[in-house]
Amino acid sequence: MLWKPNRNGAIGLAGAALLVLAACAGSPERELSETISEPGVPKQLQSRQIIVALAERERPQWSAIAQELQARHQLRPVGQFPLTSIGVQCLVFQVPPDQSLETTLARLKADPRIELAQPNQAFEGLQAGAADPVASYAALAYGVKRIGADRAWQVSTGRGVPVAVIDTGADTDHPALRGRGIQTTNFVEGGESTFTTDRHGTAVTGVIGARATVAGIEGVAPDATLTVAKACWYPEPAHAKARCSSWTLAKAVDFAINGDARVINLSLGGPPDSLLDRLLNAAEQHGITVVAATREGRDEPGFPAALDTVIPVIACDSQGRVARPRWHSPAFVAAAPGVEIVAPVPPDRYDLLSGSSLAAAHVTGVVALLVQQDPQRRPDQIREILRATARPVMPSSPPALPAIGIVDACAALARHAPALACP
Q: What per-residue confidence (pLDDT) applies to 28?
């Protein structure tokens, strides 16, 4: 149950640092003469694309290498962009239909000038259908209380902690988000116009940091500093699953790293991805805690949830019950509310939604609370605090991997605030 996959000129996470578009180091992205013809599909999500990363040491030859690769392998250029956080220049090509993707990639990987070559892979956000509008949302909202965040607010509300939500866009004029000073940026061609209709990002952002309105719904970290980086797109307006790509996600993660985010929320999943793996390792080195939703109904938890450097999250219901997954790693998985969650959706409404995307958003909020309490905490320390203070899932089950525990915000913060009263 994993919901998956700037506005132009927008400011980024911590202010001026994000005025520069960060993304594989060098010149900003530019259009090239030939593009893929798939009407209605953003260029970053079109078919048969590959990403080739050139190292910084090759900078004087970047242009010549790009032209040579295009001619030698009969590739169609689609775009190029820098990823300054890991010091590479990324070239995006389309492989013609009459050529093998696998063979082309194998030849590129054998080129010593190329640091990385991979498909532009697809990711998605998964979400259960929304319920009909309900009369009293506050009576149904259980997430904040279930994890003890309301008690933890005595110590921390996430004030000033920069949180990057890498997702679809979000309707920042929704009553739950209006006036929050949320910054936005866009990495999907033509994506600026759909922020006000993007359901997934609106719901995830609201669970993390909504402020109470007349509906009585409040996010886990209502004072966190939020930036929504749009890297995912709906193939159709009413489509339940948003789609993302290696290209859009790489630029968004790089943007968050260079913008001094302290927490990144990735309510999405897909196949293992070498470029994103490198970027998320760089995020860890920069002191950024990454939270990722798991693919609960699959044989594997999905990427990036399977990485040791992220906090993988599974959904529990209001009674703390979890559907045990088929996969057996990673060793510990955080559980958080993700079944029939009251969340904001465009336009100006709330709905009951389900998915590990929403569970991940709850955990991201808790991480923001921990970072405000002690800004010096490293990602590995935060992961250990959440593991050590998590409560057993219901019903109890015989020991098995993965170990699953329900995140307890109050207990986590009480480790350094003994006066905090937790059940």
A: 46
Of 175, 253, 265, nearest in space to 220 by CA: 265
CB-based burial label for 27 (10 Å; 0-12, 13-18, 19+) = exposed
Q: Which amino acid is at 403?
A: A
Q: Which of 200, 223, 246, 317 is catalytic?
A: 200
Q: Which of 73, 85, 156, 167 is catalytic?
A: 167
Contact 310, 266 (CB under 8 A): yes
How confident is residue 127, by pLDDT bands cut at 50, 70 and 90? low
Of 156, 354, 356, 357, the active-site residue reads 357
pLDDT in tens, 152-163: 999 999 999 999
Residues 360 and 355: their CA atoms lie apart, in Å, by 9
Q: What residue type is 193 in one-letter code?
A: S
pLDDT at 351 over 70: yes
- Global pTM reads 0.89
Query: What does the mean pLDDT of the chain come to?
Result: 87
**Active site includes 318?**
no
Active site residue 328: no
357 assigned to active site: yes
Q: Are 196 and 167 in contact (CB under 8 A)?
A: no
